[in-house]
């Protein structure tokens, strides 16, 4: 298809419909000059409701990773979470770059995007047994679902930017390695998964995206911010669903509420001080040819943020229903999850130069230190102290920001 569907009005920059067709307007002066790129330059687009739907499906894979960690809170389980997250997060980013190029407003694009969502759903369903010995069918399903994700992404991207053919071999190769891992026992399967992660994550060193892919700052910042919100919400929902069979008792309510409060405080670190808005401004102020590299740095910084959400959700779920007492495993998960999120937010700030990072790093160190409290007293006490520490960090950041503005005004 080369234009809007027959009988429909020309779509404007509405949140639910996206921008006008890129085929009907020439590239702007700051747009890419590569003849393989057909998208307009900096024409603003908004995140569509279909993209939010896509994010909800991807967030399901994150809740499945948290469930995997709950049932296998061991070094082996943590490795499995890292490997699966590594390949899935890479392709989530691929779809974010895709819809950053052109909003899914055409029927064919929407249908193909729904097929890609189905691929992610299959991956999510297979995650709990994706490494299990003797369950070859489930492991193949995980790899096959991922191959669908890759092929749909390449087909959609080729319609707007033919440079994707340079990237597709890396992504297809990774998917085939995941499928191959289904047929070999451990530790060979782990080695194949690690190779899949390496093939994709090291590909920018071989094929730098600068000049080949255009990035629209507003959409890119909004899309990743929306995923953080969805992931936090899904993690709370997953904890609630897991706690439901235990009934509503004090032993359930207390850790659940503390977990919600800590998640809300982490939300505040990302959105409460306007980091998402400053990220958009920083990317907009960057030369278009350098935005792809900056987008990669921003994209990488979300790895610890989302892994922090997964780990914190696992720690909270492990605590639900248990009386207030020391729990070393849960304490490590809660502390590690919060520390990962705070360290990721510091990385996010540093990569875009949008704010000081010292207090964020100090907060991450404090979060790790609270594990001793959870292991020796109770995870509930740990959660309360952790919450107080994050709130104190946010207050200190606000005071420092106010002093900086006063100094600038003088």
Explain how this protein is built.
By secondary structure, this protein is mainly alpha-helical. It has 2 domains: 46-206, no CATH class; 217-404, I/LWEQ domain, CATH 1.20.1410. It contains 15 helices and no strands. Helix 1 (49-71) crosses helix 11 (288-319) and helix 11 (288-319) packs antiparallel against helix 12. Residues 1-33 have low confidence and may be disordered.
* CATH fold label of the largest domain: I/LWEQ domain
**First CA to last CA: what distance?**
58 Å
- Could you give the order of the helices and strands? HHHHHHHHHHHHHHH
Structural class: mainly alpha
Tell me which oligomeric state these chains represent. single chain
Structural features:
410 residues; mainly alpha; I/LWEQ domain; 2 domains; 15 helices; 72% helix; disordered N terminus
Layout of secondary structure:
Layout (H helix, E strand, L loop, with lengths): L48 H23 L3 H27 L5 H20 L9 H23 L5 H18 L6 H14 L1 H4 L10 H27 L6 H23 L2 H10 L3 H32 L8 H25 L5 H12 L1 H6 L2 H31 L1
Helix pairs in contact: 1-2, 1-3, 1-8, 1-11, 2-4, 2-6, 3-4, 4-5, 5-6, 8-9, 8-10, 8-11, 9-11, 9-12, 9-15, 11-12, 12-13, 12-15, 13-15
TL;DR?
The protein is mostly helical. Helix content is 72%, strand content 0%. The chain folds into two domains: 46-206, no CATH class; 217-404, I/LWEQ domain.
